[in-house]
Write a structure and sequence with these properties.
By secondary structure, the protein is α/β, with parallel strands linked by helices. Helices cover 38% and strands 18% of the residues. The strands form three sheets. The chain has a seven-stranded mixed sheet with strand order 12-11-10-9-13-14-15, with helices on both faces. Strands 1, 2, 3, 4, 5 and 6 form a six-stranded mixed sheet that branches. Strands 7-8 form a two-stranded antiparallel sheet. The two termini are 34 Å apart.
Length: 378
């Protein structure tokens, strides 16, 4: 498949290329659609990024923001650098330079946020570079502004909003599938911000986390894994595969375990033409963006596997951004994330069962109708 952007009725409206000589880096901003509001999407930092990948992610953000009624359009930006290969000082200079390059678009057409390779500190740098608090979300909790006697502070994604939303989507899906979440076996691929918090909140709901995969491999214990202990291990820069008692297995094992629930929460296209036949989970909740190509999703659904698509399941982060943008509190954020994720997941799965269409198609119809309705009025 030729990987190039094809313009359609929805967008993209802007594709911006940034070439910086000092500091030296290349970056892109893709603003897909502005019908519902300024484009919202994180800054991804990875050396192998392509503008086509950013377009796919920006389009996903268009649908994600629409399905949750957030008043944002879809966008995504990226910097083509491996964040592990630059010093903290170099990274700060790159983020600030990137912010200044995007100044004509921010915040009228684009509001930044964290993504792979960026977090709350990077958002603080981005905001300071432009001298405006509202140019991005996901800022540190102690990074505040006072406006009209009201203090507003950042709501960092490090609070676990995306993982919390994934857990809420999983709860709804398990009810539709008649699986008791208490004691249900869960395998999670990826133990970063999304996977670790999804594990934490699911364990609090009574689920049994039996397998976790990270770059080094998969650890498995059918009696359950101690999520908090594993999170502490990661903070100490230790390998998950060092944990005992647990079997240490190859990374790819996580996708073929006979579990109730599988949560891909790392990178794109991890379940694909090569391994989909080996998937034995009853439910897949997509914590990552685009973890399964659409044609493979359809094959899995024909096997009887229920799938909660990415832009429904992992909307917690952008819902948190919406709350921060409107100066909400941490408590309000978790309440709104929970409500919006549960409502959207329930609506999509109800319509899926009624129409016999797959959940992604159902969710896309809902999101597209919202965007088209607004576009028709302008």
């Amino acid at each position: 498949m030729k990987q190039e952007i094809i313009v359609d009725e929805f967008g993209p409206q802007y594709v911006v290329e940034v070439n910086s000589l000092k500091p030296k880096f290349k970056g892109f901003l893709v603003i897909d659609n502005l019908a519902l509001g300024p484009g919202k999407g994180g800054i991804r930092m990875a050396e192998n990024l392509t503008v086509f990948e950013l377009f796919r992610l920006a389009r996903t953000m268009t649908w994600k923001n629409a399905i949750f009624d957030l008043g944002f359009g879809g966008a995504k930006s990226g910097i083509l650098i491996d964040p592990k290969k630059v010093s903290l000082k170099e990274k700060e200079a790159i983020i600030q330079s990137f912010a200044k390059s995007l100044a004509p678009f921010v915040p009228k057409y684009y509001i930044a946020g964290p993504d792979i390779g960026t977090g709350e500190q990077e958002m603080k740098w981005f905001s300071r570079a432009l001298g405006t608090w509202q140019v991005c979300t996901g800022k540190p909790g102690n990074f505040c502004q006072t406006r009209n006697s009201k203090v507003s502070c950042g709501l960092p994604h490090e609070l676990g909003s995306t993982g919390f939303g994934v857990a809420q989507a999983t709860k709804v899906a398990s009810e539709f599938k008649d699986i008791n979440l208490k004691g249900a076996s869960v395998a999670i691929a990826g133990f970063g911000n999304v996977g670790s918090f999804a594990a934490k909140f699911l364990q609090e709901l009574g689920a049994k986390i039996v397998a976790i995969a990270d770059r080094e491999g998969t650890i498995l214990n059918w009696k359950g894994l101690p999520v908090q202990k594993l999170s502490q291990l990661k903070k100490k820069k230790r390998l998950l595969t060092d944990y005992r008692p647990a079997q240490s297995l190859p990374l790819a094992t996580v996708y073929r375990l006979p579990v109730d629930i599988l949560i891909p929460a790392a990178v794109s296209d991890v379940i694909n033409e090569k391994n989909w036949r080996q998937v034995k989970a009853k439910i897949i909740v997509e914590g990552a963006n685009i973890p399964i190509p659409e044609n493979i999703e359809q094959k899995l659904e024909r096997k009887g596997i229920m799938i909660v698509p990415d832009f429904v399941a992992n909307g917690g982060g952008v819902i948190s951004s919406y709350v921060e943008y409107h100066s909400g509190s941490v408590k309000q954020m978790f309440e709104i994330v929970g409500n919006k994720i549960k409502q959207a997941t329930s609506r999509v799965l109800t319509e899926t069962l009624r129409t016999k269409r797959n959940p992604r198609q159902v969710a896309l119809v809902i999101a597209k109708e919202k965007v088209k309705k607004v576009m028709s009025k302008t």
